[in-house]
Design brief:
Belongs to the short-chain dehydrogenases/reductases (SDR) family. It is built from 6 helices and 7 strands, in the order E-H-E-E-H-E-H-E-H-E-H-H-E. It is an alpha/beta fold.
């Protein structure tokens, strides 16, 4: 591709703190950006278009994103639930699998055909540092994110001959209003800033990182 200004970028979770930061970063670079998320209030950003969609539903993804033919997919959407395994509810398990794993598979399946046809593509997922250092109460959450790690590895092997790079960032705690509300006594200065993570994710789609493929990149902050 000739440069950032010719890129068509799909950012999921665009209404969230991280997705919004990523969307703004790509828009500032001059790319044509599409922000996908469940329907609701969306901050207007110059150069960005919002698309309401259920990312874990094949029909919704095809209807809303089918003709997009994105050059870059940055999948920020996801979900979190805390529960000891013996207390885990089915609805929470389904939510985590759908939000963190199924959505990633559906989106990859949607964007790959056009990327292969163009012989170019960049895909960045958001996993979790905890998949490399698991702890209690996170079994279903981390299992869903670990599945995403395996998706990255498999996709990297599938796409290595098509100039498509697939990577994931593995943050610890991201500094969001919701996380601050859930952990009011924490030292927020040690958390990962959404804008910093957005910079890293944007960089992974640039020529500087052409040789980085199939990587799981920890972004730990100071946690």
């Amino acid at each position: 591709m000739s440069g950032a200004k010719s890129l068509k970028v799909l950012v999921t979770g665009a209404r969230g703190s991280l997705g919004s930061a990523v969307l703004k970063k790509f828009a500032q670079s001059g790319a044509t950006v599409f922000g996908a998320d469940m329907d609701g209030p969306f901050e207007k950003v110059t150069g960005a278009t919002f698309i309401p969609v259920n990312l874990a539903d094949t029909k919704s993804v095809k209807e809303s994103l089918g003709g997009l033919e994105a050059d870059v997919l940055v999948h920020c959407a996801g979900g979190f639930r805390f529960s000891m395994t013996d207390q885990l509810q089915d609805n929470d398990l389904d939510f985590l699998i759908n939000a963190n794993l199924k959505s990633g598979i559906i989106l990859a399946r949607e964007v790959l055909p056009s990327m292969k046809k163009k012989n170019f593509g960049r895909i960045v997922f958001v996993s979790a540092r905890g998949t490399q250092n698991p702890s209690a109460g996170l079994s279903a959450y981390l299992a869903s994110k670990a599945g995403l790690n395996m998706l990255v590895g498999s996709l990297a092997d599938e796409t290595k001959d098509f100039n498509i790079n697939v990577n994931a960032v593995l943050p610890t705690i991201i500094d969001t209003p919701m996380n601050r509300m859930d952990m009011p006594q924490a030292d927020f200065t040690k958390w990962v800033q959404p804008t910093e993570l957005a910079d890293i994710m944007h960089s992974l789609t640039t020529p500087l990182f052409n040789s980085v493929h199939g990587a799981l990149i920890p972004v730990a902050g100071r946690v």
